[in-house]
Each structure stands twice: as structure tokens, then as C-alpha cells.
């Protein structure tokens, strides 16, 4: 656990970067610092590994104040990943990854073996091992940056906008890879971003910062979306937060109608021999021999967000549920869905006893 | 010409070895002195411009004047080779301070910060991160300084200590072309050779500068 105990940072020029921050980052979880530019996210992050020293207050890792530890030794136990990766241009990829190990006295061979193993883990080819950073794409460099931070197997990782300098498609890949790795490794991670979507996607907990280094809210992504503490958070989290918050709830509790019920509206759900949906036919839609595509199905465990999206985008306003074999088992019309979402909202608004 | 070389083999070899010594000792001394000064100029930003102005000024002093002033300052005999070594060291420092400072300034701050964040201590970081990354710029400067020194040594012949330059003065006195030609050829060969050695060292020490980047 990383504890911020009343931490403030005032720079010599008088800028208040962080103001009386109290925060606990749970062990083995990803805590995201998010907020507009200049609100003190990076400064807060860099106080954890003493790249910046607080003006007042204290930061503790598992109860031990960081200021009681030798700077260099502390940092070797904390992985650090930044935008543009910050790789050493004069070192090969394996040498880059092995940096901290070499600093702690691990032999060249052993460090290389670990590095090559990590290269695979972050989804890179071993053939990159002896290349130099300039020979890699931005996305590949960023993966190497993550591998370098992981090499000494530190329990704590600090990541400052690690995925913001790559294009959106590469970023999605990196985020997915990162979540998969974290599920395996369970590091205590502080992750800075100014992208609220990234915060909600990656964070177990999210700390929303606002100008002047104030903490506006600290909570799970779902709490942020459903119960923003104030207008600033509500605004920052964005207009479609209601829709986004649906991604945290399973669709399993929805009341689903039978497949047969669709015929009442005149539409026909065309199924193949195995009972799998092929598409829609009926008046104004097409012949049963050439149905129009249904655009997607959902199954047990999918989120309310997916079901809502399917119902809205379906050519007939109906989302189709299938079983594990892909056979249609039920349908839900968007009218029914909206009614059920409304009931859900009312239930939530009632005070829980 | 061949006859001249054969007859004066010892004189020529002595001139050549003195030339090498007079040119290269200042390079080594100058590099060793310029390194910490250049480092300070980068570490303490306010020193950068004053230091660069001073070194620019030193570099603009005519070499013959410097050769003549130095005995007065450090108390050596006018014919001592030390005068040449000191003067050329001054030039080398003046040239290399700028090169070292610019080389170190070319190191991306993100990279040095990353190094600190991984747990590098200051001195080790300098030798393992900043210095190697600055090396291509520094070695380019070293090539210039080396070639310049090799040609400047000859000027020393005017005050009696000049390596191969002594062959020029002798040729002039005797109104005889051979020693002058031999002096020029050897001086040029020496410069080309030293330059080549530095290029080879650079290729060996900075392999990352030769890979093709993708962009
Ligand atoms: N070394 C410094 N000296 C003076 N002021 C600084 C320094 N570093 C940061 N600041 C100021 O402190 C405030 C917080 O900076 P910080 O870098 O922590 O913001 P941030 O939330 O990471 O912003 P961004 O999203 O733009 O990276 C800003 O106003 C910044 O200008
Ligand atoms: Mg920042």
C-alpha cells in the first residue's frame, strides 16, 4: 500500500502543484491519477520515488516513509514508465531492459535471459533483442519501456502517461496487454493519464485531480460515473457517463423475451440449421433467403452497455441473446430495455438499508 | 628527394616523433581538462555563456603570439617544448569545452531523468549514460582539434621547437625544396592517420549511430 499523508508540494517559484493530498493506493491494484493538465498528477507520482521531494507531509510504502530510504535503492525497487518510453539510445533493447538488474549487480548473462523472457511477455519478438531503440516503432518502444520497468520485478510501478504518445489503435493494444500482464503480476501501480476513458478502463481505483493540486474525488470507476462527488467530476467524467457506467453491470438480470415473441412485430429472426441467428427478414427488411445482418449478439456475462448498444444499433431495435454454442435463446426489444434501465435507476436512487 | 630522405633519416624521424608528441600530448591533456569544465558549464547553466565566451577568446589569440607569451607567464625558457604543449593545450581546451558542453546538452533530459528514476547515482549516470550518448558530438570535435594541433605544431618552428616544422625552416634557410616537401607530406599523412584512428574508434564505440532508424 502506498499512503499519501497530507502531502503538499510548492515549487520554489510559488506554484502549488499538490495541496494536502491524502490518498491510499491499495496493494496489487491499479490506481489511476487523472485530471486536466497541470493539476499535479506527475508531481504526485514523482514524489513516490523521490524524484520530487514534498514540501510537507509524508509518503509511505507499506508503512515505511520513503524519505528514510536511500534514493537510488528505493528507485531500483520501483518500476518507472514514461511517455515516449525514455529508452537509452546507446543501448540495445535487451541492455535497456536489463538496466536495473545490472545496477543491482546481476550478471550480464542472467540479465539478458530475463530480458528476453520479458520481451516475449510484453508481446515483442525476440528478434528485436539486439536492435537499438531508433529501430523500433513508438508502440514497440513503449512495450520495451514497460518491460524495462518490470525487469527487476519491483512490487511497485509508476507509469506517467505511458500510452499517450501512440496512435489510438496501438494504444488499445497496449492497454489490453497491460491489463493481461497486471492480472498475472498483481503489481501495486500508480498510473497517470489525462484521458478519463483510459482511467475508467484501466483503474481499479481512480483519483480525480483538479487545478491547484486538489483531489476532487477518489473512488472506483463505477462510483465516479454513478455518483460524481461534485460538478467538476461530473463534468470531467463527461456527458455520456450514464451510458459508460452501464459497462460495469452485467446484463444477466435483464428480463429476456422468447425468440418466438419477435413475430408479433412482423419481423422474422432467420436462424440456420443449428439455431444460430443469421439476420432479420420481414416487411421492409428483406427476404428470408437474403436477410439483413443482425449486427451482433450477446451472451451470459456481457455488460448492459453491450446489450444497449446492440438494441440501439439493431435494424429492428432488438438485441439477440445466444448460448455458448451461438444458438439464439432470447431477445430484448429496446423499449423493454429502456423500461428496465429506468427501473434499475429508481432502485439505485432508493437509499440502501 | 630519396637521397635527401636516406641521408637525413635520423633528423626526419626525430622531427616526426617530436611532432607527434607536441600535437598529441595537448590533445590528451586538453580533453581531460575540457571534460569537467564542459560538464560544469552544463550542470550550472549560468556558467555556459561565460565559459564559452572565454574559450572563444582564447581560441582567437594568434598561435605565434601565444607561443611567445607563455614563457613570460609560466617562466619556462623560450626554447622549451613545454611552451608549445601548454599553448596547444589551451587551444584544445578552448575548442573542446564547447564541444563537450554541446555534446552533453544534446542528451535528452527525458533519458537522464529515466536513468535517475531507475536508480542511477549521479557519477555512474554521467559515465554510463550522458558521456556515451554525447560521444559522437565529442569525437567529431576531437577530430577537428587533432587536425588543427597537428598543423599548428609547425608554427613552433619559428621559435625553434616545431617538429616537422623544423624541416620547413631548414628548407627555407638552405633554399632547398626537399625538406619542405617531406615535411608537408609527413604532416598531412600524420593528420589523415590520426583522423582515421578517431573515426575507427568512433565506429567501435558508438555502434548505435550507424543503425538505420525507422520513421
Ligand atoms: N520543476 C517545477 N518548477 C516549477 N513548477 C513546476 C515544476 N514542475 C511542475 N510545475 C508546475 O506544477 C504544476 C503541476 O505540474 P504537474 O507536472 O504535476 O502536472 P500534471 O498534472 O502532470 O500535468 P500534465 O497533464 O500536463 O502532465 C504545474 O502548474 C506545473 O507548471
Ligand atoms: Mg504530467
Automatic annotation (TrEMBL), chain A:
Residues 2-237 form the ABC transporter domain. It is an enzyme of class 7 (translocase). Its EC number is 7.6.2.9. Keywords: ATP-binding, Nucleotide-binding, Transport. Pfam families: ABC_tran. GO terms for molecular function: ABC-type quaternary ammonium compound transporting activity; ATP binding; ATP hydrolysis activity. Belongs to the ABC transporter superfamily. This is ABC-type quaternary amine transporter. Signal peptide: none annotated. The keyword Lyase does not apply.
Automatic annotation (TrEMBL), chain B:
CDD domains: TM_PBP2 (cd06261). GO terms for cellular component: plasma membrane. It comes from Labedella phragmitis. The keyword Transport applies. Gene3D superfamilies: MetI-like (1.10.3720.10). It holds the Pfam family BPD_transp_1. PANTHER family: GLYCINE BETAINE/L-PROLINE TRANSPORT SYSTEM PERMEASE PROTEIN PROW, OSMOPROTECTANT IMPORT PERMEASE PROTEIN OSMW. One of its GO terms (biological process) is glycine betaine transport. InterPro entries: ABC_transp_perm/SBD (IPR051204), MetI-like (IPR000515), MetI-like_sf (IPR035906). It is a multi-pass membrane protein. Residues 16-201 form the ABC transmembrane type-1 domain. Signal peptide: none annotated. The chain crosses the membrane at residues 20-42, 54-74, 80-101, 150-168, 180-201. This is ABC transporter permease. It is found in: Cell membrane; Membrane. Keywords: Membrane, Transmembrane, Transmembrane helix, Transport. Belongs to the binding-protein-dependent transport system permease family.
